[in-house]
Amino acid sequence: AAQKVTVSKTFDNATSCSSENGVVLIASIYQDAIAALENSGGVLLDAEDKKRLEGFMFANGKLTSAFTAQSAPYIAEKAQLKHPNAKYARFFMVVETGFGPSAPFSGEKLSPVLTVWKATDFNDAKQIVQGIYSFQGAGHSVGLHTASSGNMMDERASQLAQELPVSRVIVNQAHAIATGGSFDNGLPFSLSMGCGTWGRNNFSENMSYKHYLNISRVVRVIPEEVPTVDDLLQEYFQRFPH
Length: 242
Description:
The structure is a single chain. By secondary structure, this protein is α/β, with parallel strands linked by helices. The chain contains eight helices and six strands. The chain has one domain (2-186): 3-Layer(aba) Sandwich (Aldehyde Dehydrogenase, Chain A, domain 2), CATH 3.40.309. Helix content is 33%, strand content 13%. Helix 6 links the parallel strand 5 (139-144) and strand 6 (166-171). The termini are far apart.
């Protein structure tokens, strides 16, 4: 998972909207995950370096363009980071506990800076991600990296799809690459991702040629089949008994 996150986060210096903006790590694997990300080229900044970086990245409370699409060593130099490995980093990690305007690292950064949250368990992780989307990014996508397989993996992916305001749930893949479509995941190749009404779009899939087509339909009378209320709402009634 760490290798995939690194590939995605460093692709084009994280200018893709599909690059991980942050990761939410379950407490039981938190230290191992941080170590794996560090082994992949990430540098975890302490509180003082985080404060320095925030001062440069979010001048006057808004994201500055000075660091957009810049490399981690460039950012380290301009932000005067003190970590001994800062100038060798592929990307930086900053620990966060909140989200919203008071926690600017929870928002879009367009640079190789990865925000890290710690969650007690999977349900807590979902709540944290929900909070992040209440600030920015609703409608886009979420990634799930898990060692679980079979029903457990499918169940967790389904929970994310049903409970979070996202148009795509990317499972065990490098997010920035997979979201734009791949021969091994079935998504259409695209650089434009619809975010549905969550993101004030009118579609929630990858934009492709079909969104530019005008389709004419020939409409004829056919034998009538009137469904019952139970036929129409069977799945709803199963999920929400009345």
